[in-house]
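Suppose you are handed a protein chain with no further information: no name, no annotation, nothing but its sequence. What can you learn? This example shows the usual starting point.
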Amino acid sequence: MGRKRCVGGDGSKMAAGCCGVKKQKLSSSPPSGSAGPGGGGGSHCGGAAAAGGEPGALPPPGGPRLNGLGGLAGGAAGCALSSPLPPSCGGGPAGLSPPTSSLLASPGSGGPGCRKMVVSAEMCCFCFDVLYCHLYGYQPPRSPRFTNDPYPLFVTWKIGRDKRLRGCIGTFSAMNLHSGLREYTLTSALKDSRFPPMTRDELPRLFCSVSLLTNFEDVCDYMDWEVGVHGIRIEFINEKGSKRTATYLPEVAKEQGWDHIQTIDSLLRKGGYKAPITNEFRKTIKLTRYRSEKMTMSYTEYVAHRPHHHFQNGIGHPLPAYNHYS
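A reasonable first move is to predict its three-dimensional structure. Written in structure tokens, the prediction is:
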């Protein structure tokens, strides 16, 4: 956009100061019912830890937890789910043998002139495996075959035909993907303070998204980012003199139909800023922009890939048919 960039802005630098409204927490999506800049209302929708935090949750080894995308909690109604063993779970209550194969291959490069993406459908499959094993009491799945390089990451769960947000938590601290996805799969599904813990009945209606955050840049101008391309993290001093931070993932502003000012003002409200927002105050914001690689998979797609997995004893264990939406 032709504006001067500041020096710095890597993920590790940000991780040290990514506290949100509550200590060690950061919001990353729009507040509930907020259709524009003034929407700071009392709901968590998009506002993460803004009101209540995450009782009993300990900070992860890789850094502070970040509460993610907001939305209304999806109802738990749906088809009953029996408990077959998912593809990479270890032996569970049924005493079944674990599988020999893991998940799906990475989709490869994004096309001519594009570098190969790191995020893959295999990562979403792994998140479903982790959640499935947890909900049915099986041993955790084996380590996957995709890269274990460290990245800042978010795991997002949505539910139903209208894809209502069901949980989203992540970290700006780079974590090895195998352990990071294990941790944030369960944290986002069970410990997002905006929603009740996820249940078995909800599994058939879920969508899982994995976002890997990249290309962190500090910028001098709070307008120096592109809607639909960059995620943004802001740091500001509130009316009481306390430092606050908040973030939106790259897709949030575009999905909400916001421009730059609406997005910044919504983030300020979500971060707890209650005073009138002026252009002079906006200029005091410290803004870091970043990009993300994102992959989304529905439970239906996950189940469709299940026949590719086999157990050590040569017996497959397919899931029964379900009505996947409600």
